[in-house]
Amino acid sequence: MQRPRHASRGGLRATDRAVRHPLRMTLAQAAPAATTPDAPVHRDWTSLGLAGYGAALGGLLFSVAHRGILDDGYITLSYARSLAFHGVWGFNEFRTANTATSPLNVWLLALGTFVTRQPVVALGLVLIASTAATAAWLGVIGRRVGVSPFVLAGLATGLLVSSPLFASTVGMETFLGVAVLVGVARYTVDDRTVATGVLCGLAVLTRPDLAMPAGVLVLVLLRRPSGRKWSQFGRLALVAALVAVPWHLLSWYALGGFVPDTFAIKTAAAQFREGENFATGPYFLAQTWTRASVLIAAPCVLGLLTTAVGVVAWCRRPLTGPLRVAVAFGLGGVAHYAAYSLIGVPPYHWYYCPAVGLLVVAVAAGAASVAPRARTGVFAAGVLLIGVTAGTQLAAAVPWDQPVIYGNWATARQYAAVGQGVGRLVPRGETIGGFGEIGGVAFACDCDIIDPFTDRATAQRIIDERYAKAGPLGQWLLDLNYTHAERAPATVLDHQLVYTEGPGPGWRTEGPLRGLGHIELAR
After folding, report:
1. How confident is the model over 76-119, as pLDDT tens digits?
2. Mean pLDDT across the chain, nearest whole number?
3. Contacts from 354-357 at CB under 8 Å and sequence distance 24+?
């Protein structure tokens, strides 16, 4: 008589828990059963296999793209080399700076550079690790919500790596950013507050703007009822702050800015056409790179449709696990795009990667959740899109001299030739004025090139311009950000690099948008 009564009490407790946490029950029902002792081993092998798949894709991309790194990518590599070899936060050992937007990316690259002594090799290692983590974490998410981990991770990672947008940003923190956001979702689905908070903090250290999509992912995927959800959200926000805030406080006091100078420099750049801003940027990008834009837009449009369907369904009933994942990633992408549009950020193409990456994961989650009878056809269509997208880029000579989307004034090789030539001509320690694009030249030269990205005194002029144009709130925020910054006198130049369009003396350059040009070194 005692055993049935004990079982009954246990059954009532399980029922009560299901009533109190209906959403948790929904996700639990969607998750695949794992009751056998061999299940954990099986899951480990699945994660390992998906990590290998992601690493292979990242390695393939790096092998064809490592010669066509964007000029801004070399800015980050210069920071990493200076930190690894000289312990200096800046372009080189000559002066500190505060223009590295992604401290986490710099730290990882610096660690790889310290070990390998080759910054570009370190870049490849970080890229491979990012794609491997993305695939492995997506596989875990797939298992948790009851869909094939191979479909979710395989489609999403393949679409990301083959995307002309992401392939054109090798050297930036774009793949790392997607990886940490997928990590946020992976640990949120598992209801692991501390791990989720740590990943949210790392997202902020990857790029401060990733706080927006990270927050959306957490709010949509948290499995607790409303009251307890906000309590848990507060706890993981505290963990995230403990991870991210110390660096920003150090930057505020030691480097003179809680937010890097890059924000003022980039938003003040007047190199885009009238009416071309972040919101309208895709239209102008499509005019220049039409085929690539179509291939980028295809999964984004499908991701938006998947998100819209999910939101409508959510208004009627609790979502199943995979559709909730699709909605979380889709809303995260929309939120990031909307926030950047409201701020008025310029339309640098790598700024669109968080939104595009999140929408890609959304459409992959939607594809993985379709009925079994349609899943094969959907998966085949996804593989076909990956093949077409990758094939159009691999049709060119590889390794690339420049990626599909490339707006710099010269190729990476041409900038390297300029930097090496300047390094031979200018005695070490003498200052050289930059000409507008600084990353590749400064990396190859490893000399004291003066530019807003390298020199606080030069950046201060742009900051002052931003301050004059800002409203009362903007001026107050700038005053707060630069509370501990010291104004330095203008740097005296010993030499000046000059870029001129058309043929001429010096080093020849040629960019897809600027055409033929040349760079001279003047006294």
Report:
1. 999 999 999 999 999 888 999 999 999 999 999 999 999 999 99
2. 88
3. 354/174, 354/177, 354/178, 354/181, 354/207, 354/209, 354/210, 354/213, 355/300, 356/163, 356/165, 356/166, 356/296, 356/300, 357/160, 357/166, 357/174, 357/177, 357/178, 357/181, 357/333
